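Running co-folding for inosinic acid.
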Amino acid sequence: MSEVIQIHDKEFKIFIPSEYIQVEVHSLANKLEKEYQDKNPIFLVVLNGAFMFAADLLKSFSSSCDISFIKLSSYQGMNSSGKVEVTMNLSIDVENRHVIIVEDIVDTGLTIQELKEQLSKLNPASVEVCTLLFKPEAFKGVEKPKFQGFVISNKFVLGYGLDYDERGRNLKDLYQLKE
Ligand code: IMP
C-alpha cells in the first residue's frame, strides 16, 4: 500500500486501508441481514462507483435477494454538477418490493434524492439507502441514508470504486485529496 499516490494532476494520501473497509462492510451486511432476511429485497447498485462496495457487501449477505444496477451521473471531475442524469434505466419491477439503494458515497445527496423520487412513483414496498461513505457537511438532501458506513469530512476521496476522472477505481484502499 502506497502512502501517497498521484492521479492526473493531484496527490492523494492513504485514508482508510482495505482491512478497515472490510470490517465496516461486514458490519453493514449484518445490519441488512437482520432487517431484510425474510423480505427478499432488491439491491439496486448505483454504477459505476458502488461496484466494489456492492460486490463485498453482497458476498456477506446470505439471505435471498435480487440484485440490479442503475447508472446515474451528477459528477464531473471533483464537483457535483447538481443535475442528476439517469444514463441506464431500471431493468427490474420494484412494485411491492423492498429496495435498498447501494451507493459508494452520499455527498450532496442529490443523486439519491432524485433516484428515490423516481422509484417512489413505481410503488415499491420501501426504499432505503445503504452507503459506504457519508459526507454530512456537504449533504443538502431531505433524508439521511439509513445505513451508513464511514461518516467523513468534506474532502474528495477515491479508490475502492470511487474515481477522479475515471482513474483510481481499482485501488483496494480509500485515499483522500492531499492539501
Ligand atoms: P451526490 O449527488 O452529491 O451525493 O453525489 C453522489 C455521487 O458523486 C457519488 O455516487 C459519487 O459517484 C460522486 N462523488 C461524490 N463525492 C465524491 C468523492 O469524494 N470522490 C469521488 N466521487 C464522489
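Result summary
The longest strand covers residues 66-76.
The radius of gyration is 16 Å.
Job closed.
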